[in-house]
Amino acid sequence: MGKTLAELIREEAPLVMGIINCTPDSFYEGSRKQVVEDALAAARMMIREGAHILDIGGESSRPGSAYVSAEEELRRVVPVIKAIRSESDILISIDTRKAVVARAAVTAGADIVNDISALADDPELGAFAAEQKLPVILMHMKGTPETMQNDPFYEDAVAAVKKSLSEAVERALSAGIDRENIILDPGIGFGKRPEDNLDLIKGIQELKKSGFPLLIGLSRKRFIGHITGRDAADRMAGTLSANLFSAMEGADILRVHDVPETVDALKMLKALL
């Protein structure tokens, strides 16, 4: 078995987390892998190109997306996780809000829970993660994916997100999750305006004062299109720029669609620094 997530963060940050969406409706079409063979091929490429973690999701969280049943989510993700685990010991994250999905995913081989609700949706998920001693990624989101972009507003996005994430940390600790197993995510694009997303990226150092590792997930998101005028298929350059800035500010994990390009960009950044 390879290193734990905490060990990798200490030794190799920023880590690259590759996105595999087992969904028909994720916002970036290139990330959709609805057939196990396609998802496995994407996983093989990402592992070969230097990903540290694979994030497997079966429920789209694009703005306006509706809730997916646990049965459908399980059908989408469990065979993919089993297939990847049969070939590799890479860390696998299950992107879910549901304890029943997390349980099945961990049985299939997942190592990490990535919860966009920060353990607020399903009270059983925190207890399960604590019992299994799983790392948990707690993300900030205003509302739900279905409602989050309905006129979001912040006086100070960094302060508001920092406060909300501190409450999520208390929720995790109360469930019995070890401090070393908590990673925070400011939720770029989840109930934020373009200017809020920029403020949060520029506020990474302030967010890290909480003492927990920070994941940044901005890959190809709408605010990049707002700035560059490009659609999701053409936002790689903007994504790489924002991710390199995030890395320089102290991001510990970068959640990305484009693993080879991100790995190469980080190699150059490290050489120059």
TrEMBL record:
Needed cofactors: Mg(2+)
Catalysed reactions, semicolon-separated: (7,8-dihydropterin-6-yl)methyl diphosphate + 4-aminobenzoate = 7,8-dihydropteroate + diphosphate
Keywords for the protein's UniProt record, in alphabetical order: Folate biosynthesis, Magnesium, Metal-binding, Transferase
Pathway assigned to this chain's UniProt record: Cofactor biosynthesis; tetrahydrofolate biosynthesis; 7,8-dihydrofolate from 2-amino-4-hydroxy-6-hydroxymethyl-7,8-dihydropteridine diphosphate and 4-aminobenzoate: step 1/2
Gene Ontology biological-process entries: folic acid biosynthetic process; tetrahydrofolate biosynthetic process
MF GO annotations: dihydropteroate synthase activity; metal ion binding
One cellular component term from this protein's GO annotations in UniProt: cytosol
Entry EC no(s): 2.5.1.15
Pfam families on file: Pterin_bind
Coiled coil: none
Domain Pterin-binding: 14-267
Keyword Magnesium: yes
Enzyme kind, highest EC tier: transferase
Superkingdom of origin: Bacteria
Keyword Metal-binding appears in the UniProt entry: yes
Similarity comment: Belongs to the DHPS family.
The name this protein goes by in its record: Dihydropteroate synthase
Source organism per UniProt: Spirochaeta isovalerica
